[in-house]
Amino acid sequence: MTYDFDLLTIGAGSGGVAGTRRAGSYGARTAIIESLRVGGTCVLRGCVPKKLLVYGVHFAEEFEDAAGFGWEVGPRRLDWAKLIATKDRELDRLHGIYMKLLENSKVRVIDGRGEFLDAHTVAVGGQRFTAERIMIATGGWPTLLDIPGKEFAITSNEALDLKTLPKRIVVMGGGYISVEFAGIFAGAGAKVDVVIRADRILRGFDGEVRSHLQDELAARGITFHTGSAPVAIERAGAAYRVRLASGATIETDLVMMATGRAPNTKGLGLERAGVAVDAKGAIKVDEWQKTSVPNIYAVGDVTDKLNLTPVAIAEARGIA
Question: What average pLDDT score do residues 288-308 get?
């Protein structure tokens, strides 16, 4: 059978782009499907934009230190909207670089959401594309706690695009995403409450680091509600009310859930291709990233193994 492509990739994040570019450089006929923008979680919705916000709000501490060393520091105010606009310009620049890299490797970029019709055919909108081999690199996506009022909460995706900074923010979760955003919001001047079910943040990390970091963040104004399970989010006029299992409530202007991520496999039509997933929806792969279907591979967070950008890149390049 003659196929449209030697390798067709679904998902243009770090892994998908790296593997498809590498295959294209070897002379393979390649294409990559993306429903949002080329770049993926790390470049567009994670590492890079988050670091830019961290760098931006950290200047507040630098100003304080400078005054202590004799510098005369005048009035200062963070223009949050300007910081977000600066972040957006950098993401636009990186997206442009990724698009150019794909073009230089002769990779065709197909806009839209890919959906399997069978093991060799993927539909995008009203078009159908066939490939000898297909690589799934759709990454992960934030999940929401299944509590009443969850529709009022945002995730890290939306937090990176806030046009204005609320005065009060509740962050649910004790992992590194929660902790990082709590630090960003507090550094920018918001009143931050962190709600976690455990007694300390960052479960699984070194115990002394967990305690020290939580104490330092508390000293900088972040309030921690430990051993507290959120049970509901309610409207309270123009604001919100977070109810905890203890009976306590927190009034806030914004609720962010950082309570986990899940493999991004919904709506891919994996069952039509015969691709097996586990109970969490993660695609099952062997040591060579091969799925239950011999010509279909999966890399990165969608397999829920080691959810790290360099791992996804190495896996995809190995497939190429």
Answer: 97
Q: What is the set of domains in the chain, with CATH numbers?
A: 5-46+80-142+262-319 (3.50.50.60), 150-259 (3.50.50.60)
Q: Is the pLDDT of residue 10 over 80?
A: yes
Q: How far is CA 213 from CA 55, 207, 287, 300, in A?
A: 18, 10, 37, 29
Residue 38 DSSP SS3:
coil
The answer to whether 264 and 300 have CB atoms below 8 angstroms apart is no
Q: What is the pTM of this model?
A: 0.92
- The pLDDT assigned to 9 comes to 98
What is the DSSP code string of 72-130?
A: --------HHHHHHHHHHHHHHHHHHHHHHHHHTTEEEEES-EEEEETTEEEETTEEEE
Burial profile 254-283: b = 16 or more Cβ within 10 angstroms, e = fewer = bbbbbbebbbbbeebbbeebebebeeebbb
97-120 pLDDT, tens per residue? 999 999 999 999 999 999 999 999
Ordered DSSP codes for 178-218: HHHHHHHHHHTT-EEEEE-SSSSSSTTS-HHHHHHHHHHHH
Judge whether residue 74 has pLDDT over 90.
no
Q: Compute how many other C-beta atoms are within 10 angstroms of the C-beta atom of residue 249.
A: 13
Q: How many CB atoms lie within 10 A of CB 301?
A: 30
Query: Between the CA atoms of 165, 93, 178 and 59, what dihedral angle is there, to the nearest 10 degrees?
Result: -60
267's tokens: 């709506």
Q: Give the Cα separation of 230 and 39 in Å (integer).
A: 33
Contact 118, 270 (CB under 8 A): no
Q: Which of 161, 170, 191, 167 is nearest to 259 (CA)?
A: 170
